[in-house]
Design a protein that fits this description.
The complex is a heterodimer. Chain A contains ten helices and nine strands. The longest helix of chain A has 18 residues. In chain A, strands 5-6-7-3-8-9 form a six-stranded mixed β-sheet, sandwiched between helices. Chain A has a three-stranded antiparallel β-sheet with strand order 2-1-4. In chain A, helix 4 runs parallel beside helix 6, helix 5 packs antiparallel against helix 6 and helix 9 crosses helix 10. Chain A is globular, with a radius of gyration of 20 Å. In chain A, a hairpin with a 2-residue loop joins strand 8 and strand 9. By secondary structure, chain A is of the alpha/beta class. By secondary structure, chain B is mainly alpha-helical. Chain B is built from eleven helices and two strands, in the order ααββααααααααα. In chain B, strands 1-2 form a two-stranded antiparallel sheet. Chain B is globular, with a radius of gyration of 19 Å. The mean pLDDT of chain B is about 90. Classes of the chains: A alpha/beta, B mainly alpha. Chains A and B meet through strand 5 and helix 4 of A and helix 1 and helix 5 of B.
Chain lengths: ~280, ~260
């Protein structure tokens, strides 16, 4: 019998508390804050646990401020959790070990790693050096990615001259040059028109099939979720609300439309209805 | 190391793209250089020396100051606090790169661009005004001078990196940084030689790392240091490098544990 491969992402009881400084309203408040600052604890993520296998494409969904990005940042090693454990590719992410970093990528829809004044090609070459990608592999990957994303003619144009959609495609290509096995995508289609959204979605799906990568994706766009994800994890107020397939989600929250099913799930969470905790 | 040299070359390319800010920066440097030239020429017009410097030594100090400003003070470490505050640091932390080394090579690139321009300014001014430069008599002086300049570059990088790390604690590190830069340049001897100040003030300044950034290397170049002063100076530079390395390591490690990756 074939042994089951360990999950690429494994999270157990992950919690994150931020210390946030508070400013009282008005000039008086500002003056008081100059001498004495008050802090309060904000629990961004509470006791979150899940696993993701190689080849899975999972939607990580929730309203703004639900704790999605904070969880992604912990999984990428940017943040150290307050409590809990996580293993990504067999590594503790926040130790930021080189072999871990070489197999992971995180794309943030509103952030760019491309050099603004230079052509995307220069950023590609920099990543080639950073990830120590052998030349033949680099050339093959660039060819493959630029063909799939239709950006071949744009690689020598300064990034600042590209449209948002073109930039996002170049961004995705740049982030995937080292063929990562784990992709954390934070709203990869944000701000794109419907045609461009579709192209980016098709590309993510193609990459997932080609490299059997584990992909965790956050999005407010339900087309992203319905077209890409076979499984959804719902989070609100930092707490896990649901983890299962899309048909299960719809069956559980009793609606044909995915957006409505999610809305009902979050509303139920707000009312703290019994039986909603993840089994 | 190849990746860091690539970073070096990319910042060169970027520097050449941003031509306007580059030329404005160099124009400011030319104005400073010419102002100092006229100031010291006027002061030394009717006297053989001033504060122990003859005309040729003082002019050499002024020209050396311009070169060392570009080598020691030219830096992009002011970006560190912004990188932290706006979450741009995340892009570096996600990749297999050492941010400290990356920043150093970013600085090296900035310094080399500025050095090329400063050399052209100094050579141009020397020919234009037929300046008589004081060259060291002892060839070993060059070795000590270059060692002191290397130490000064590293020392100032550590100082700037430490200040950049304030970004972990406050979003308002621009003001303190500006004040620190002004004070460091003054106490480094980047406006005038420190030995024109009172003995008491000089003694106080000698306790800081800044005199070893510009004043000390130029004293070596002008062959105004005794062997004992030379060895003492180099040892003090080493002491500050070790002390600041420890502080930078502590500040960076502590800051990173608090990093919220905001804005990313």
């Amino acid at each position: 019998m074939e042994a089951m491969e360990p999950p690429l992402i494994e999270v157990r009881g992950l919690s994150k508390v931020f210390k946030v400084d508070q400013k009282r309203p008005g000039l008086r408040g500002a003056l008081k804050g100059l001498f004495r600052r008050e802090f309060r604890d904000v629990q961004a993520v509470r006791d979150v646990s899940f696993q993701i296998q190689a080849g899975e494409l999972v939607g990580f969904l929730g309203p703004n401020g639900a704790g999605k990005t904070t969880t992604l940042k912990m999984l990428s090693g940017l943040l150290t959790p307050t409590r809990g454990e996580a293993k990504v590719l067999g590594h503790v992410p926040w130790k930021r070990e080189r072999p871990f970093q070489k197999q992971l990528t995180m794309v943030m829809g509103q952030r760019s790693q491309l050099w603004w004044d230079l052509p995307a090609w220069d950023s590609f070459l920099l990543n080639k050096e950073i990830y120590e990608i052998p030349k033949p592999q680099f050339e093959e990957t660039v060819h493959e990615l630029s063909t799939l994303l239709e950006i071949k003619d744009l690689l020598e144009v300064p990034v600042k001259k590209l449209s948002l959609g073109q930039r996002m495609k170049a961004e995705l290509a740049c982030a995937l040059l080292h063929r990562p096995r784990v992709l954390l995508l934070d709203e990869p289609t944000i701000g794109l028109d419907v045609v461009m959204q579709k192209k980016v979605r098709d590309f993510i799906l193609a990459y997932n099939h080609r490299w059997k990568a584990a992909i965790l994706l956050t999005s407010h766009n339900m087309d992203d979720v319905s077209e890409l994800c076979s499984r959804a994890i719902l989070i609100n107020h930092g707490r896990l609300l649901f983890d299962g397939s899309l048909p299960q989600l719809q069956a559980r929250f009793g609606h044909d439309d995915l957006t409505d099913a999610m809305r009902r799930a979050f509303a139920a969470m707000e009312k703290e209805e019994p039986g909603l905790a993840v089994p | 190391m190849k990746k860091y040299w690539f970073v070096f070359s990319l910042y060169w390319q970027e520097g050449l793209q941003q031509r306007a800010s580059f030329f404005i920066d160099r124009f400011r440097s030319c104005v400073t250089l010419i102002s100092f030239y006229y100031l010291w020429s006027a002061l030394l017009k009717n006297r053989p020396s001033f504060a122990g410097y003859d005309y040729s030594q003082m002019i050499t100090y002024v020209l050396g100051m311009d070169i060392l400003r570009s080598l020691v003070f030219a830096s992009r470490t002011y970006e560190i606090a912004g990188d932290i505050n706006h979450g741009r640091l995340s892009a570096y932390l996600l990749k297999p790169v050492n941010f400290f080394v990356y920043t150093f090579f970013r600085d090296l690139s900035e310094k080399s661009i500025n050095l090329v321009s400063a050399m052209m300014e100094v050579i141009g001014l020397t020919f234009l005004f037929h300046l008589k430069v004081h060259w060291p008599h002892d060839p070993f002086t060059w070795i000590w001078f270059l060692a002191a300049v290397g130490g000064a570059i590293w020392l100032n990088f550590l100082l700037n990196f430490m200040v950049g790390c304030w970004g972990f604690w406050t979003a308002e590190s621009g003001g303190p940084r500006f004040l620190m830069e002004l004070f460091v340049e003054f106490s480094a001897g980047a406006f005038f030689p420190l030995d024109i100040l009172s003995k008491r003030l000089q003694a106080a300044l000698q306790l800081l790392p800044s005199p070893y950034l510009v004043f000390f290397p130029l004293q070596i170049f002008l062959e105004k240091t005794t062997r004992a002063q030379l060895i003492d100076g180099l040892l003090i530079q080493l002491f500050w490098m070790a002390a600041l390395s420890g502080i930078v390591y502590g500040v960076w490690t502590r800051g990173l544990s608090m990093y919220g990756a905001q804005g990313s």
